[in-house]
Write a structure and sequence with these properties.
- By secondary structure, this protein is mainly beta.
- Among the domains are: about 170 residues, no CATH class; about 60 residues, no CATH class; about 140 residues, Immunoglobulin-like, CATH 2.60.40.
- About 0% of the residues lie in helices and about 40% in strands.
- The chain has two helices and 43 strands.
- The chain has an eleven-stranded antiparallel β-sheet. A four-stranded mixed β-sheet has the order 2-1-3-7. Strands 5-6-4-8 form a four-stranded antiparallel β-sheet, with no helix packed on it.
- Strand 1 and strand 2 form a beta hairpin.
- The longest helix has 11 residues.
- It is elongated and about 145 Å long.
Length: about 675
């Protein structure tokens, strides 16, 4: 039966000890060699013919990477050989076996590899498998030793002559090994080896004996001629392959081939090219290399940080410059040359000016913009609740709906701030105005009920910016009827405007000829400080009848300046709820407005039947003109003041005298 053992841990020692009887470390079958005082591994052929492999873990690999192996024969038969195999290169001998130690055991060397022990030799099949031959064989009760490459922890052992072909054996026919009736030798090798690599040996039993034969193969072989390559077997003989070209690809050598020595070269003195632009008349030197004579020609050292490159000696050299260059790092900008080297510029912040991305630069890749979530500002005053979505700042449209089916509601963002507008649908061409909102007879040239003029006339009203003689809905400002859908806050039909010059806090008339109440006692001023515009207003407004009080905390607040043509020159806004009650009045403060723009301070203080309004706002006031209209909006109510503005130091000053008087 097949006999072999593997050892991976101490469990194998216990098993081996049980079978081998008294065998236990130290294993004295081996002498002290190197760092080992006895065998590291012991192979025991037990009395029943089985094999145990024992390991003494106290013994290190001698020489650092070799194993000292002992063999103990406890059987009743002489052991002529054993086969060995492992997962490591146990037969990969590298000239540091047991006979290469100092001092070496007496009797060394025992074989050509210096790994052999007394009376042992090796048959190597592969670097990890082969056989150990004992001559003379190990008698019953006898022992010997040898060494293997590597620190062996896994070892398969087979016994030649047990009738089982094991690892490292060519064959095993038991007692017939080495006889005339077997093709198997006494060492479990082939008895039919004809020594010809171009035949596969065969063995045929004839009349109780064996007859060796051979079958031709086509295996690779060596024909003995070093000037051929790719030799192969054919017809039982090694046939030459193709001629060895012996080309070393060196133009300064002549290549030859010797059938015994193989390829060899002889240096020549031919013209050549050393691929150096700074040499001329290149020629092969006596040692097989190409070299020319140095020149001083213009050249290119392939360095963008040098100019006027010229050959000097055998090398190309240039003068350092300070040109722009590329340091190879995509995360730097404005790289520049200095001292002949490219120095990195400033780091690339990769700022895409998008509040909804986190910007970074990755070396070797470049800019990346990772989408963010959370609140943002899309810089559109006509949207609210702006949030980042897929890397884009997106808001909901501002709700300017006034529940009036006869108005077209919209948000105006002129001046960088919002203003909800509610236009009479009759005044907007092609609008889908509901039937109940359309005057039945407007445009027939006759003033019917609900009309104050007819037909519509777009002729501008002199001295009344933005007003026409007759609107498309057959009404006009000054008809004594308040048309809220046309943006009127009031309409008293008189043409008086502005404030009382004798009493600047009081209006000449509660309703101006623009159908809005005035802003009185308003020494408004515009200044520019460090490039930032500042608007200040100190005025008085009165509640619009029938109201007797104001509540700016529950409505949107807007302040703007417009030209005579109604073009918005400046605007800033506050959402409803931002203005808070403060004592008997109202107050709003934003300490960031000086930096970010907008209203910095706003107060409403009751004074009798009116309210004093003080306001400071920051922003772009560079479009200010010498004639403008100031607008204050609280929800749908509007107060205005038209006048001339005089240049003052650093800006403009409203001329109060220009706001007085009638039409």
């Amino acid at each position: 039966m097949k006999s072999f053992a593997r050892v991976l841990a101490a469990a194998a020692i216990a098993l081996g000890a049980a079978v081998a009887g008294a065998q236990s470390p130290p294993f004295t079958q081996c002498p002290a060699i190197g760092s080992d005082t006895s065998c590291e591994t012991l192979i025991v052929i037990n009395a029943n013919g089985t094999v145990s492999v024992l390991t003494d873990f106290s013994q290190p690999a001698f020489g650092g990477d070799d194993t000292l192996v002992g063999v103990q024969n406890n059987s009743s038969a002489t052991v002529a050989s054993i086969s060995l195999s492992s997962v490591t290169d146990i037969f990969g001998f590298d000239a540091d076996g047991l006979c290469d130690t100092f001092p070496a055991p007496a009797g060394c060397p025992f074989g050509p590899t210096h790994y052999e022990g007394p009376g042992t030799s090796f048959v190597v099949v592969t670097v990890s498998s082969g056989a150990v031959l004992f001559s003379p064989g190990i008698a019953p009760g006898g022992s010997t030793y040898f060494s293997l490459e590597e620190d062996v922890r896994t070892l398969n052992v087979g016994i030649c002559g047990n009738g089982v072909r094991e690892a490292g054996e060519f064959c095993d026919e038991g007692a017939a090994n080495g006889t005339s009736s077997s093709c198997c030798s006494s060492t479990c090798g082939s008895q039919c080896d004809d020594g010809n690599p171009c035949t596969d040996d065969t063995c045929t039993s004839v009349g109780g004996s064996f007859v060796c034969g051979a079958v031709n193969n086509t295996a690779p072989c060596e024909d003995g001629n070093q000037c051929t390559i790719g030799d192969h077997c054919s017809g039982g003989q090694c046939q030459p392959g193709i001629t060895n070209p012996c080309n070393d690809f060196n133009p300064c050598t002549d290549d030859f081939c010797s059938t015994v020595m193989g390829c060899f070269t002889v240096p020549n003195s031919d013209p050549c090219d050393d691929f150096n632009p700074c040499t001329s008349n290149d020629v092969c030197q006596g040692f097989g290399f190409c070299q020319g004579t140095p020149n001083n020609l213009p050249c290119d050292d392939f360095n963008p940080c040098t100019s006027n490159d010229t050959c000097s000696g055998f090398s190309c050299q240039g003068t350092p410059n300070n040109n722009p260059c590329d340091d190879g790092n995509v995360c730097t900008l404005n790289d520049h040359c200095q001292f002949g080297f490219c120095f990195p510029g400033t780091p690339d912040t990769c700022d895409d000016h998008n509040p909804c991305t986190a910007d970074a630069c990755i070396f070797g890749f470049g800019c990346i913009h990772t989408p963010l979530t959370g609140k943002c500002d899309d810089q559109n005053p006509c949207t609210t609740d702006d949030v980042c979505l897929n890397g884009v700042c997106t808001g909901d449209p501002r709700n300017c709906f006034d529940d009036d089916p006869c108005t077209v509601d919209s948000c105006n963002s002129a001046g960088g701030a919002f203003l909800c507008q509610h236009e009479d649908c009759n005044n907007i061409p092609n609008s889908s105005c509901p039937a109940q909102c359309r005057p039945v007879f407007c445009g027939n040239g006759r003033i019917d009920p609900g009309e104050t003029c007819d037909p519509p006339d777009a002729t501008p009203q002199p001295g009344r910016p933005g007003e026409v003689k007759c609107r498309l809905d057959c009404t006009f400002c000054g008809d004594a009827i308040k048309q809220a859908s046309d943006g009127e806050t009031c309409d008293d039909a008189n043409l008086v405007s502005g404030c009382d010059p004798l009493h600047p806090t009081q209006p000449l008339d509660a309703c101006q000829n623009s159908c809005t109440p005035p802003i009185c006692q308003d020494p408004a001023r515009i200044r520019t400080v460090n490039g930032v515009g500042i608007l200040t207003i100190h005025g008085r407004i009165e509640p619009v009848a029938p109201d007797t009080t104001l509540d700016p905390s529950s409505a949107d607040f807007v302040v703007e300046l417009t030209s005579n043509d109604g073009i918005v020159l400046f605007r800033t806004s506050l959402d409803a709820g931002l203005i808070q009650a403060h004592g008997a009045g109202f107050k709003y403060v934003d300490r960031t407005a000086k930096l970010n723009g907008g209203i910095a301070a706003l107060k409403f203080a009751p004074r009798g039947t009116s309210y004093r309004v003080t306001l400071t706002a920051y922003g772009d006031l560079s479009d200010a003109l010498d004639e403008m209209t100031t607008h204050l909006f609280i929800g749908a109510q509007e107060w205005t003041l038209h006048g001339r503005w005089l240049p003052s130091r650093g800006g403009w000053q409203l001329d109060p005298r220009s706001t007085f008087g009638g039409s």
